[in-house]
């Protein structure tokens, strides 16, 4: 069999071969109003939970206390502590009020912000 015999079968008109290819540009980029009505409102992913894992308070042990200074234009010294929570995770907690008696290895209750 010669090469010319193989190529003769491939000589299909160009307009016919383009009709077989799906048109990607013909699809709609957005949903129609009927499709949006059938599917309902979009489902958003749930928000990421912090170290408290959605709980209002957690018990923990203070690992160390320190003072943080905020960025400009705020200028107060923030009393903070690093806490190992009962879930096993570690978190940095703000100590509210004036003065505190927290020391290392003492119990502490962390409130959710």
From TrEMBL:
UniProt-listed InterPro entries: NA-bd_OB-fold, Ribosomal_uS12, Ribosomal_uS12_bac
Q: Name one GO molecular function term.
A: structural constituent of ribosome
Looking up Gene3D superfamilies in the UniProt record yields: Nucleic acid-binding proteins (2.40.50.140)
Q: Which SUPFAM superfamilies match?
A: Nucleic acid-binding proteins (SSF50249)
Keywords of the record, alphabetical order, are:
Ribonucleoprotein, Ribosomal protein, Signal
**Which Pfam families does this chain map to?**
Ribosom_S12_S23 (PF00164)
Biological process annotations from GO: translation
Q: Which PROSITE patterns match?
A: RIBOSOMAL_S12 (PS00055)
Recorded GO CC terms: small ribosomal subunit
Q: Where is this region: Disordered?
A: 35-56
| Signal peptide start and end residues | 1-26
Q: Which family does it belong to?
A: Belongs to the universal ribosomal protein uS12 family.
Q: Which PANTHER family match?
A: 30S RIBOSOMAL PROTEIN S12 FAMILY MEMBER
> What name does the UniProt record give this protein?
Small ribosomal subunit protein uS12m
């Amino acid at each position: 069999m010669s090469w010319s015999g193989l190529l003769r079968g491939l000589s299909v008109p160009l307009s016919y071969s383009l009709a077989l290819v799906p048109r990607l540009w013909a699809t709609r980029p957005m949903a129609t109003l009927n499709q949006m009505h059938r599917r309902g409102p979009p489902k958003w992913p749930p928000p990421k939970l912090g170290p408290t894992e959605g709980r209002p308070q957690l018990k923990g042990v203070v690992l160390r206390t320190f003072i943080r200074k905020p960025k400009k234009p705020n200028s107060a010294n923030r009393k903070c502590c690093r806490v190992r929570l009962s879930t096993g995770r570690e978190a940095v907690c703000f100590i509210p009020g004036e003065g505190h008696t927290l020391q290392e290895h003492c119990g502490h209750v962390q409130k959710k912000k």
